[in-house]
Design goal:
The complex is a heterodimer of chains A (about 240) and B (about 290). Chain A is mainly alpha-helical and about 240 residues long. Chain A is about 50% helix and about 5% strand. Chain B has a single domain, classed as MetI-like (MetI-like fold), CATH 1.10.3720. The chains are: A mainly alpha (about 240), B mainly alpha (about 290).
Chain lengths: ~240, ~290
């Protein structure tokens, strides 16, 4: 898997064992991850790579767009992805009625009430070095994006974004709607903890180890090592 | 046409654009880069001085040292293979073979494709081949990655070096061959005693080009293996340039300074090795 595909597993899927470990230890970040639920991570990964559209050993050379095409063509039933895929797959020909969403169950926590994985890792930033006028203008523009008719319509319809603001237009994205319904039903979303992941290098390490494990050239221990030891070294670097 | 002082002035004016580009595009960044290697910085205009700390960290960095040895191995193998291949292809194509112009074009063509694209194309080719032999992908095995890079570079560079060698072959005066033949030299003797010494200028330039190209290789490395696989926390097929790039954009406030220091060390290594090579091959150049 190259970087067009492995972000789904080294970031999004890896978030699940991290989320549940944080929940159990009642923390929101850590310098040393224990990897309490790595066995569950292994199980879900094994499930993913067994009986998928290609042989395990071939995964290493598969790309994100191949996975997308296979899903659109109906060769694959499940596709781990997010609301941002809506645009691509509906343009590819899939209709709202064909689509649904399922929480990722890995055998931890209260699964009956588990919701979808949601969150953000991106922020709108204002440069502190900019002049006061520019800062004010940027704030106005950002507010305009999430409150004005033109701004919210563009965000909701053209960009298929989730817009968590009162005055915002409701998104036409089916995935966003499903998420809203699940939350209304009292399901607890799994929060993204990407920002607490130590670094891009950490993710790359986990991604490479997962790829090598799937190809059979690496052991699961290498994934554990990249996950737990890699976390520690990368957090130390970040703290310098 | 003009009086002398005026001519000088015009020369200066005509030099100016190139000189300006050279200063803006090379001299300034180069000096600034060396300067920044002694600093800790996130953005360049807010740097704090840390002395030689970055250099100490660079030498303590396992991935940097490992990438040096990997690069060195790659350079040795690729320089030899590319030059031997290019030399003999050029030799073959200067014998009067039918359609040798077409062959020359064909061999030269890989040079016209960019490194990133080549890397991806060869990635597909290798993986397809390996898949048909039921073997795992190139990116999961260090040795496969190494030889993959070698094959890719030979395929790309041999054609370019071939052109230089062909020019070299054609530059050998015919009377030398005639004289050798009259003296009763055999074919191999002509090759080793006449052609090779006369070809030394071409060999100098070709080894220089392949040496520095292989040392500085980045695009092909990035696109073909991306440094994978990862073994015990080390990306085993990361060459120096890619490793420096990854260090520079790594985590932590000191990452950029250390990357910068590694860049300076890298520059010194490349300069030292290529100057040494120039010195040694130049010494063997002869005059006819």
């Amino acid at each position: 898997m190259d970087s067009s595909s492995d972000w789904r597993f080294k970031t999004h899927l890896a978030n699940l064992p991290i989320y549940f470990e944080y929940q159990k230890d009642k923390i929101s970040d850590t310098d040393a991850i224990k990897g309490t639920y790595l066995e569950n991570y292994k199980n879900i990964w094994d499930l993913y790579i067994t009986d998928s559209t290609c042989k395990k050993t071939e995964l290493a050379s598969k790309t994100g767009s191949e996975a997308e095409t296979e899903f659109i063509k109906g060769n694959a039933v499940f596709f781990q992805n997010g609301s941002w895929e809506y645009d691509a797959i509906t343009k590819g020909g899939l209709k709202d009625k064909d689509l649904g969403m399922l929480p990722i169950y890995i055998g931890v926590g209260d699964e009956a009430n588990q919701g979808l994985c949601t969150g953000t890792e991106n922020y709108w930033c204002i440069n502190e070095e900019a002049s006061d006028d520019d800062k004010a203008a940027t704030e106005d523009f950002i507010n305009w994006c999430v409150t004005s008719k033109t701004g919210t319509e563009a965000m909701a319809n053209e960009m298929s974004f989730v817009i968590p603001f009162k005055k915002a237009k409701e998104s036409s994205n089916i995935f966003v709607k499903i998420d809203n319904e699940l939350t209304k039903d009292g399901k607890t979303p799994v929060s993204w903890n990407f920002t607490t992941m130590p670094s891009e290098d950490w993710k790359d390490g986990v991604g490479a180890a997962l790829t090598q494990y799937a190809a059979g050239t690496g052991k699961w221990d290498a994934v554990k090592k990249a996950f737990v030891d890699g976390w520690k070294t990368e957090k130390e670097k970040a703290a310098e | 046409m003009f009086k002398k002082p005026k001519r000088k002035l015009y020369a200066l004016i005509f030099l100016l654009p190139t000189l300006a580009a050279f200063i803006v595009g090379f001299v300034y960044p180069f000096i600034r880069g060396i300067y920044l290697s002694f600093f800790k910085f996130q953005i360049v205009n807010k740097a704090t001085f840390v002395g030689i700390n970055n250099y100490i960290k660079a030498f303590q960095d396992d991935s940097f040292l490992r990438s040096f040895w990997f690069t060195l191995g790659f350079v040795i193998v690729s320089v030899i293979l590319i030059n031997v291949m290019a030399f003999f292809i050029a030799y073959g194509l200067t014998l009067k073979i039918r359609g040798s112009n077409i062959y020359r074009t064909v061999f030269f063509m890989p040079n016209l494709i960019g490194g990133i694209i080549l890397g991806y194309i060869w990635h597909q080719i290798f993986d397809g081949l390996l898949r048909s032999m039921d073997m795992p992908s190139l990116v999961t095995n260090t040795d496969l990655g190494f030889w993959g890079l070698i094959i890719l570079m030979c395929w790309q560079q041999a054609g370019y070096m071939m052109i230089i060698y062909i020019a070299g072959f054609q530059g050998v005066p015919h009377d030398l061959y005639e004289a050798a033949k009259i003296d009763g030299a055999k074919r191999t003797q002509i090759l080793t005693k006449v052609t090779l010494p006369m070809m030394m200028p071409s060999i100098t330039i070709c080894t220089f080009l392949t040496l520095t190209n292989s040392f500085k290789l980045f695009d092909q490395n990035l696109a073909l293996t991306g440094g994978a696989p990862l073994t015990d926390g080390i990306w085993t097929t990361r060459m120096m340039a890619l490793n420096i790039y990854k260090t520079f954009y790594g985590e932590g406030i000191s990452a950029k300074g250390v990357g910068q220091a590694e860049g300076v060390i890298f520059f010194l290594i490349v300069v030292a090795i290529s100057l040494a090579q120039l010195y040694f091959t130049r010494r063997r150049e002869v005059q006819a």
